[in-house]
Amino acid sequence: MKEMRLRKKLTQQQVADSASISKSMLSKIENGQTASAIATLSKISEVLEVSLSWLLDDENEQDLVLLPKSSRRPRFGDENMGYSYELLANRSSLSGFEPTIVHVTPKNLNLREEAYTHSQDEFIFVLEGSIYLLYDGKKYFMEKGDSACFQGSKPHLFIPVDENEAKVLTFFIDNPL
Question: Which of 12, 22, 156, 168 is most buried, judged by most C-beta within 10 A?
């Protein structure tokens, strides 16, 4: 991330201001001192004009990505933020979507109450457990097998229902220009 920022001749302050975060937060993210919400990383990727997967995965883009479970990197994120996630593939610039598994933190560990926004639209499919989808001020119960598609630019949050982790297959979908 820092390398790309420097290549684009941007200061930390410029990137932080454009991504609506503090300079100190950007510095901690660049130096690996803190985990960041995917919404924050999405905003940084927009400012740097790179895909979200580019920030999460240092592999080169390919037209075919086979990723056995045993080769997938461990989860990113912080349970106290409300979730951690696994990047399922380094997306090709042609596909326009980011496949991810979001692990929703159990209710007793989840400290997140503030909704997220980001530029990509989102498709979700509940793989395990159940969640409340807080979307644009309304709360929707979702359980295994349920799906939803929505605008990422509207405030949203996955809220745990109980003390069990939920797994949500998520596709972040680039909006056409």
Answer: 168
- 131 — pLDDT class (breaks 50, 70, 90): very high
Residue 46 identity = E
- pLDDT tens across 71-107, in order? 666 666 665 566 777 777 755 454 567 788 888 888 8
CA gyration radius, the chain: 16
Neighbours of 24 (CB within 10 A): 12
DSSP for the chain, written as a single string: -HHHHHHTT--HHHHHHHHTS-HHHHHHHHTTSS---HHHHHHHHHHHT--HHHHH--SPP-S-----GGGSPPPEEEGGGTEEEEE-----TTT-EEEEEEEEPPTTT----S-B--SSEEEEEEEESEEEEEETTEEEEEETT-EEEE-TTS-EEEEE-SSS-EEEEEEEEPPP-
- Could you tell me the pTM of the whole model? 0.64
Calculate the alpha carbon distances from 59 to 56, 62, 96 in Å. Answer: 9, 9, 17
Tokens of 129: 């457990």
pLDDT the model gives residue 94: 47
Distances in Å between the alpha carbon of 111 and those of 33, 57, 78, 104, 107? 19, 27, 10, 11, 8
